[in-house]
Amino acid sequence: MFLKKGFLFSTALALLAFVSQASAGPNANATLSLDLIPDGGPGNQTDEGVTSGTVSGQGTKIAVEVFAKGVTTPLAGVVITFNFDPAILTFDKAENNAFQFPVPEPDSTGTNFATHPPITLPESGFLARAEFTTEVDVTDKQFTLGIKMVSLAQSVALIDTITTTNVISFNEPVIGEFEGMQIHLDTQIETPAVQNNKLIIPEQIAGDTIQFQLFVPMAAGKQTYGYEIELDLPDKTFSDHIGSISGTSFTGAPLRQTPDHPVLSALLISTPVVPENGYIGHIDLQVTNTLEAETTLIVKTASMAGLSGQQDSLDVSNAVITITIISGDFDDDLDVDFADFLAFTSVFGLSSSDANYDARMDLNDDGVINFADFLIFVSVFGTMHS
What we know:
It contains four helices and 22 strands. It is mainly beta. The chain is rod-shaped and about 110 Å long.
């Protein structure tokens, strides 16, 4: 027994010595993979393709299995070296009972296996089960575990060194199907809904209603449990300017407001499919105090849920409505056209002392709607805002 162990130990040392010197053998095209054992148990020597997981705490055991596919010859030895951050993980051991003699790597990053006579790997390509321990509290900490290299030895002179970029990732944020999709607004209300990207509206006074439609074009054709929209008036107190908030989803179901907050939610238990144009709903805001030019109304946050039930954040960078003064647009339809000209002619010649005087059409603010104002109107005629 002593002689046998001594022989195997010598074989293992020989493998170590020759790993960087041996000629390439018949297993140079073998491929490596790592498989996480989710429960940290003994494993099943079958590659289940588990390449990510969630782990927490300090002193937590992590178990993985290593596989080499495409090995065509019996092996006298194997060297497995892992790639990991030693500040996060400690390598405990690697084991495969088919190999009679394991020798840990001197730097505690892996194990050398040797056996005599050489063995044939199972069809799964199972090489070893390895255990690690978390060195620190890894709760919510992202890290990876990979393979630096594996050496497959048919003999001490015939060794193939294989590498891979495959890793097992831990505590990665889950990316949902709606994550990062852009939400768009449109103030040009149409039925059926059409996305026109109209994002400018005139000044708003008490009693006005701001209406806009919501679109998430990339969500078209996907099922959803609904969405949540948070509105804001930057640099203003929302409740000082907006009273009631209401809306409907694309199914016609009413949006639900969070009490005392400018947040609306679509609760869609039937998981309907988003229409092909990406239309997801309509919102009405009742103005209670003047919203002057240069005010912006934004979607501050937005999220949407798919069939997994995960709440995915939407990109709100383009969800901005700007309030502006549109000179000459007397009917507030975002263009200066013939209808505005007719409105202008109806008060032409009037002054601030006249009953029907309209200050909006006194374009130079001199108290009289005259030829000077007409020249200003002509200069902006045909202007369109989008």
